[in-house]
Design a protein that fits this description.
This protein is an alpha+beta fold and 360 residues long. 31% of the residues lie in helices and 26% in strands. It is elongated, with a radius of gyration of 50 Å.
Length: 360
């Protein structure tokens, strides 16, 4: 039996190697199938758990209180484009009763530039008129400010307060009595009660002595002196020649002045030598009409426009008090023909005409 021992040992080694080989192959097969096996196990468990989870979630949702539904937000409206309305132009003419006319001159101020001074002057005139309706404004502008701003501010302020616009005249002059002052404004207003029982009279520009004689004993309500130089004001002649109740205004017509005595125009109460034309109880104040050539036909066109403005209100051209402003002397050459001023509201204008016409 001893010779069989080596054979048995060899046989045993072969069996052991074969068994080990089968074990390794089995392990390799298990490793290859392990992901698939894992996925199958997870899938089976999910099939069991998903219905249970669905039931739990549904019960939880049913147990919660019902939330109020929000209303859908309204569509926001597109912003409306705001367009500023155009400011109305002052009327070409306004009618007023002579018995109720009151006259004022704005105080001079050197505060601010032209815009602020115009606003301050209009506020002061509104305060002085004490509720009287302003029917005419005449603004004298000095300096380099844009005269067109006067009309814009007048239209703006009167429109804001729902008040009727007055007729307007704007003239550029050389200087005002206060250094830094750029505007002075005269106003004619119609009071609520009569203050001039006999009416008023409008006296054209003339030397001071002649003006006093023409006014007689009647009170001078407003006086405007057009001067070649402001030296000696205030307090000197001709300022001292017009005591209260006169509202006095003094302007230097051109920047470089000139020669000759001052010419003063005035409004006086009728009586004592001064009488209203034809006993008229109403007048029409016009605005300023411009001519762009210094020719008789062009000035005639400006007068025609004035006629079309005043006649519909009952005004008549005969006996009207006409004021003419120009950048140079007129064809006649005399000072009574026109007042030579520094400038007019339009750049190309050379002559401006306004009037006060009596109503039949």
């Amino acid at each position: 039996m001893a010779f069989l021992a080596p054979v048995l040992e060899h046989r045993q080694d072969i069996l052991i190697k074969g068994w080990r080989l089968r074990v390794n192959r089995h392990r390799q097969r298990q490793c290859k199938n392990q992901p698939l096996h894992f996925i199958m196990i997870v899938t089976m468990r999910l099939r069991i758990l998903l219905p249970a989870l669905s039931l739990l979630l549904a019960g939880h949702l049913l147990a919660q209180p019902e939330r109020p539904q929000k209303k859908p937000a309204k569509k926001s409206k597109e912003p409306v484009t705001q367009v500023l309305p155009l400011l109305p132009d002052p009327p070409p003419a306004v009618v007023a009763e002579t018995a109720r006319l009151v006259f004022h001159v704005s105080p001079l101020s050197a505060k601010g530039l032209l815009t602020q001074q115009v606003r301050d002057a209009l506020k002061a005139l509104e305060r002085d008129n004490r509720g009287a309706q302003i029917v005419k404004l005449r603004a004298f502008v000095a300096g380099t400010g844009d005269m067109r701003r006067v009309q814009q501010i007048v239209s703006e302020m009167f429109s804001e307060k729902k008040q009727p616009l007055p007729a307007l005249t704007t003239i550029q002059v050389g200087a005002l009595p206060l250094v830094g002052a750029q505007v002075v404004i005269e106003s004619a207003g119609m009071d609520k009660k009569p203050v001039n029982p006999g009416g008023v009279v409008f006296l054209p520009p003339q030397p001071v002595e002649q003006l006093r004689a023409a006014a007689g004993s009647g009170d001078i309500l407003r006086v405007t002196c057009f001067m070649n130089s402001l030296d000696g004001l205030p307090g000197g002649a001709p300022a001292a020649a017009f005591p209260a109740p006169a509202a006095a205004n003094f302007v230097q017509l051109t920047r470089f002045g000139g020669e000759g005595p001052p010419l003063c125009e005035a409004v006086a109460r009728a009586g004592g030598g001064a009488a209203a034309a034809g006993g008229a109880t109403k007048v029409v104040f016009s605005g300023l009409q411009l001519a762009f050539r210094d020719q008789p036909e062009d000035i005639g066109l400006a007068l025609d426009r004035l006629k079309r403005a005043v006649e519909p209100l009952g005004g008549r051209m005969d006996g009207a008090a006409v004021s003419v402003y120009g950048l140079a002397r007129g064809p006649g050459g005399g000072p009574a023909d026109r007042l030579v001023v520094e400038g007019l509201p339009a750049l190309a204008a050379v002559v401006g005409v306004e009037m006060v016409a009596w109503v039949d």
